[in-house]
Input
Amino acid sequence: MAGPELAGKVAIVTGGAGGLGRGIVELFVEEGARVVIADVDADAGAELAQTLGPVAASKRTDVADADDIQAVVDFAVTHFGGLHVMVNNAGIGGSPKRFLDDDLGDFERVMAVNVFGVMVGSQRAARHMKEHDGGVILNTTSIGGMNAGAGVTAYRASKAAVIHFTRSIAVELARYGIRANCVAPAHIPTAINASLDQGAIVRAMQPLQRVGSPRDVANAMLYLASDRAAQVTGIVLPVDGGTTAGAPPRPLKDLMAPPAPSPAT
Output
């Protein structure tokens, strides 16, 4: 019987104290990894680490601060002896206003967390991996960065930037044995989208009529982090129930033109 997928690996998961990040942390630990939970919510991170035991540790990290990122990379190396997988998962939403009504007041913070945080997290992890036989960088994007749509303009732009950035570093870092990929979740209930009716969204937009969970996203991350994906780099893997493929089919009767009126006699 095969052993744990990530036995002997050390991972950092940013935004790991809750939501999608917590699901990734928990599954990685189940699969044999030692994991550093890097989250701006220090209390939640410490509580999760205590729950998981000595294979997990936490460090308060603001991903928009390059010094914080370097510190958590150094911490992982010192505490667990290395760094093999960097999951840049931390992210924030944006204004739900329509573009013409949006003052773009959240633009700088959204870009600092969602784009700069991913860039510097990838860079500082890759600097270590380059000197230690490679590794894996996984970045959380969104179908909002793949499909055009109205609202949350800064968020959509940031997640599109994550995709292009990740594909670019996949090309540049391959020579060092470093793989870089994106996972693009959609319609997964977490705190970031708690105000939305996920059931209604799934019915309207998602061919698979099933509400996903953080575990679904974690399973995709596990595959890309593992040796099963040794030949996979530079991709975007949607975890979206088919949303990026197309909306659910409407009943044919809804698509039929009404019959032409009978000519007047």
About this structure: Residues 10-255 form a domain with the Rossmann fold fold (CATH 3.40.50.720). The chain has a mean pLDDT of 94. DSSP finds eight helices and seven strands in the chain.
